[in-house]
Amino acid sequence: MSEQPRRLALRAGAVLAVAATAVLVTAGPAFAHVTAQPGTAQQGGYAVVTMRVPNESDTAGTVKLEVTLPSDTPFTSVRTTPIAGWTATLTKSPVNPPAQVNGRTVTEAVTLVTFAAAPGTRIGPGQFIDFPISLGPMPKDRDSVTFPAKQTYDNGEVVAWDQPTPADGSEPEHPAPTVKLLPASGDGHGGHGGGDTPQAAAASSDAAARWLGGAGLVVGALGLGVGGGALLRARKQGGGS
Questions:
Q1: Alpha helical stretches, state H, 82-197
Q2: Do the beta carbons of residue 64 and residue 86 sit within 8 Å?
Q3: pLDDT at 25
Q4: Side-chain-side CA neighbours of residue 57 (13 Å)
Q5: What was the pLDDT predicted at 56?
């Protein structure tokens, strides 16, 4: 094979390698921390806040997640949805001083939601699980709500996701899951979190995953097409030299 066809073949191989890498990167999870999904909700509305928990360890699995809810602006409605292999426990605490929520005096509210894995269940390396929590009403007098979380691994390690975002906007090492609150649209329900049911949040997550997977396949197909064309040209030129 002459020098020119050889260069074309090497270029084609490089294109194929880049395309394959793009497929893996695009189709994989685009996150590394425990986050609140989606990132927005309506002030005064109800929304499903899904705690997305990726397993960051290469050797251990996640077996528990503890999510702290605000006590100064308590939620009067907190609900979870069944997840196979996991149990959810709602812990209530006194609200002191009592808070006014939509004309109601709240003296006790759920301040902690704990998801615990059954024996033999865990989030393994390279995996993640979504834990939906239906919450409301959202505070009307602030622009965000944080949900500090603790992630426990089966080797005993505990990672606290509770650091606030600094004034300069940079991301801390272990940021607390946060939901931005937007002005209400008028209906007082649903919010920008994708409706008031866990199914809506799950549908949104599934649609995003399908979009990412589809984008990865498109990139891969384009790369294969370009690489295949280059190989054919290399063979033709090699045969004619």
A1: none
A2: no
A3: 35
A4: 17
A5: 94
